[in-house]
Amino acid sequence: MGFIDELVDLNEDVVHELLKKRLDSDEDPLAILTDVKTAMKIIGDKFSEREYFLPELIMSGEILKEIFELLQPKLKEGAATESKGKIILGTVAGDIHDIGKDIVRFMLDINGYEVIDLGVDVPAEKFIKAIIEHSPKILALSGFLTLSFDSMKEIIEKLQAEGFRDSLKIMIGGGTIDERIVEYVGADKFGDSAVTAVKIANEWMSE
Amino acid sequence: MSKHKKQLFKDRIQRVNDAINLKEPDRVPLTPQMNPFFISNQAGLSQKEVWYSGRKNLLATIKICKRYDWDLYPGVSQNGFGHFYDVLGIQNFKWPGAKDPNSRLPDNRPFQAVEGEWMKQDEYDECLDDPTGFFLRKIVAKQNVGLSAFSKFPGLDKFAFMGSGMDLGLFLIDKDFLKMVRKVNLSKLKLLPYLLTLGPYKKKMESLGFPLGGMGGGLYMASFDRISDSVRGMRGTMLDMYRRPDELKRLCDILAKATLRSIDSGKSIYESDDSEGVPRLCFIPLHRGANGFMNNKQFEEFYWPSLTMMMEGMIEREIIPVPFFEGCYSDRLEYLAEFAKKHKGKMVYWFHDIDMKQVKEMMGQYVCIRGNVPASLLVAGTPQQVEEYVRQNIEDCSEGGGYLIDGAIAGIPDEARHENVLAMENAVKKYGYYRK
Questions:
Q1: Is the ipTM of this complex over 0.85?
Q2: I need a surface site. Which of A96, A103, A133, A173 has the fewest CB within 10 A?
Q3: Residues A132 and A183 grouped into a single domain
């Protein structure tokens, strides 16, 4: 099996060996980077198809981190990639849960989006600051606790009051979020998984 | 207790026990467990007050519970432990009003657990060689800065020795240890008055005809979740599934067995004394077993064995496990049904996001199911929508008994509207009678 397959199968030790060989033979690091991206896309697809789950995402992220530690110094600056668009993401004020948010970030990222992750317990002001700075088309709000309903509502009301709402599409998601909460908080759509988040983003970007 | 209240108490217990035993009661029981702050929101207390004044919270609980006619009422939880948490210097929780700014949340926010990697991957051997010693020295001492003196707790070798008490004796007169004891001891001035109100609280509730069902048999966790939440962190635990699978499974088994030994050695502070006929329900909120967290093979290998071992041990001890399947468990229904078949009428399965009709058809003849009025409905829905949801659930799930109505997400959410909670109750009375 080649580098891509080994990475997809999460064979950590073999991936290391192959990577070392490729780096030692002075292969163009951009070619390695392209393979890594291909592998991550396959891993993301396997996640979408429910062949891979969270342990595989976490393990692939770990291997990826190790690959980048070796690869980064050899990558020249300006190896920027094309992005489908910017998405601002965060767990809303009052809630510090990040598992769902992080999976959404991973899936959006490997599907070509530039994700600006504001972290957890994010108040409206921080979202607004990031919106001014990055002018995204999409805002993605995450929340696990039921208090996030009111928190999302407050954030969206502030966006409305300050004139940012109409230029944004807003998706929400998390443990107890459903269609009722979309209406309650004034969002556009909800996603029950990271896979749905990607679908919604693709749909909105192609509008 | 007045004769009327006594009868009310008896009827409620009978109703719940019949449902658990898969017999048809007179009507479907309504058994809302409450998230900690529903009461405070209804009573106008801040969440900090709940956390720091358990007595106020218990009085509010009695007042608010009188508004509702349920079959089980909330027991006690960690409310009122704020000062004690401060003294222990707990690092893996954040709560309203904490003394330590790192743990402090605003006065009106509910507490939240903070997951972390408290044990490193290369510490498995040390942990498995001497689990209790390791947990005392490395986990308890780090997660509770007020107990950091335990980092000096003697090693196992010092106990397996002719002078087995020597090093322990020296540890007990160590200045850091003595300082720690003095501090913890002082905290009892704040803690004891609260603890002393728990008995009268229970008595008062029972005199009103309210059986306490909250956590009569305690609150326990699946081993995998204990490790994921507060030992290795979720990321660490999931990496262990690849890198240290055997060690992870061994630790899961050790913790499940330890849970059963704890049950044998005495009740925890949260447990109520047995009241006649009140089922000893043991709440087991599950975290990482849901659909998205792992595949069935991993569930079967890492999650389910130690959990079923623990639940089987509880059943042997006449405790009724109430696993709460938070999230969606549709991928796991075969496992759940198979286990229920082996332990007919001995458990309650509490569901969140699931097709209850399908669950009833698959395993309703073996296990009492509970749930699942959505949090979104109780917070943001209308009373009519709540009524319709409950009616449909009763239609789908109540045949032959074995069904308890409750919220979907660990009971009544903090922000639930009173009129929606009332609508849930009224719907049960309107549609839930098997016979009058």
A1: yes
A2: A133
A3: yes
